[in-house]
Amino acid sequence: MYAQLVKSEASSETQADRDFQARIDRGDTIEPKDWMPEGYRRTLIRQIGQHAHSEIVGQLPEGNWITRAPTLERKAILLAKVQDEAGHGLYLYCAAETLGVSRDDLTRQLLDGRMKYSSIFSYPTLTWADMGAVGWLVDGAAIMNQVPLQRTSYGPYARAMVRICKEESFHQRQGFDVMMKMANGTSAQRRMAQDALDRFWFPALMMFGPSDAESVHSAQSMRWRIKMNTNDELRQKFVDQTVPQAEYLGLTVPDPDLAWNEETGHYDFTEPDWDEFFAVLKGDGPCSADRIDAKRKAWDDGAWVREGLMAHAAKKAAAALAAE
Ligand code: FAQ
User: Fold this and answer.
1) Which of 323, 29, 61 is nearest to 175 (CA)?
2) Could you tell me the distance, in angstroms and rounded to a whole number, from the CA of residue 246 to the centre of ligand 1?
């Protein structure tokens, strides 16, 4: 099973569940101290926690290029972007903590394989052009998914999304700017830009999750407004938005069957290789082991800081108690 099992709520629905659903249907925002079904709480912890992990693990592929950015300006921009991702992780861990789970618990679950992070970050960033492709395509896909989440039913998650989306939009533009420079540069730079698009196109499409037919959580999550759109809806919107951008760059989307469909008013496109996607989810992506090793090392290396902070907090609490 590639997903976490979810309990069907329908069979044991109580009056409290029905009242809660009525609040959701009215468009109410749910706040941390409000009553909520256990499944709603667990689904949010799973989604927000995995989203937080994605932001943090997502620092690694770009962090890889900070020391090798081609100019001081590009280095400063990339540094700021990677730092923003840490902030996004922090807002999201804080939102998850309002549901009664600690950041330490979530991190342990990531490290022991009980929680996932976005499949995209199991792919390597091989050239500087990949910094353009990540900003343009990966942040582009992230925004497509996250803008609707600003209206999600859980208040702390929705509010975190507002700030995150503003920053992601800057990230997407800086990525497109890198691609413009490369695509309009020397023939070697153009080849690098095309190669980055070739390698990131299908992994970017996978970011939206499995096809609707395979998505185990979508129906219940949409009923609770934890998700606002299906995976396939957002994937299609992303393709429709991104293909004209690739044309503007003079690059070719690596899909020979990509075609504008007059009847539907959308692009027809080839689905990603779902076997590859499920293998990545199982931890068999090209960089999956490296990513978790890097996070495990950071966790272990930071143990003394956490212990020091706890000791300091205990000392301050004891001093405050003694002064009472
Ligand atoms: N990768 O039933 P569904 C970013 C899992 S942020 C890995 O469709 P759901 C910023 C899914 O968890 C990118 N796992 O699941 C940035 C579930 O497994 P579980 C992250 C995936 O939750 C940019 C199973 O498959 N964004 O990039 C993926 O309804 C640049 C069944 O799937 C978010 O997390 C995947 N791609 O829909 C940072 C947004 N897709 O949990 C640095 C919030 C699915 O049962 C640099 N999340 N799975 O073990 C969501 O909108 C949803 O959770 C989906 C998945 C759409 C990702």
Assistant:
1) 61
2) 25
- Give me ligand 1 centre to Cα 146, in Å: 11
Q: Phi/psi class of residue 304: alpha, beta or left (left: φ > 0; alpha: ψ in -120 to 50)?
A: alpha
Asked if residues 136 and 175 have their Cβ atoms less than 8 Å apart, the reply is: yes
pLDDT at residue 313, as a whole number:
96
pLDDT digits (tens, 9 = 90+) for 135-147: 999 999 999 999 9
pLDDT at site 12: 80
What is the CB < 6 Å shell around ligand 1? 2-4, 46-47, 50-51, 54-55, 58, 85, 116, 118-119, 134, 138-139, 142, 145, 206-210, 215-218, 221, 227, 231, 281
What are the residue ranges in the chain where pLDDT is below 70? 1-2, 5-11
pLDDT of residue 10: 52
Which tokens is 170 given?
Answer: 């800057």
Neighbours of 1 (CB within 10 A): 5
Which of 114, 215, 217, 278 for mutating ligand 1's site (highest number of atoms within 8 Å of CB)?
A: 217
What is the model's pLDDT at position 37? Answer: 97
Q: Supply the pLDDT for residue 8.
A: 44
Distance, CA 209 to ligand 1 centroid (Å)? 6
Give the N- to C-terminal CA distance of the chain in Å, as an integer. 55
Among candidates 239, 234, 274, which has minimal Cα distance to 254? 239
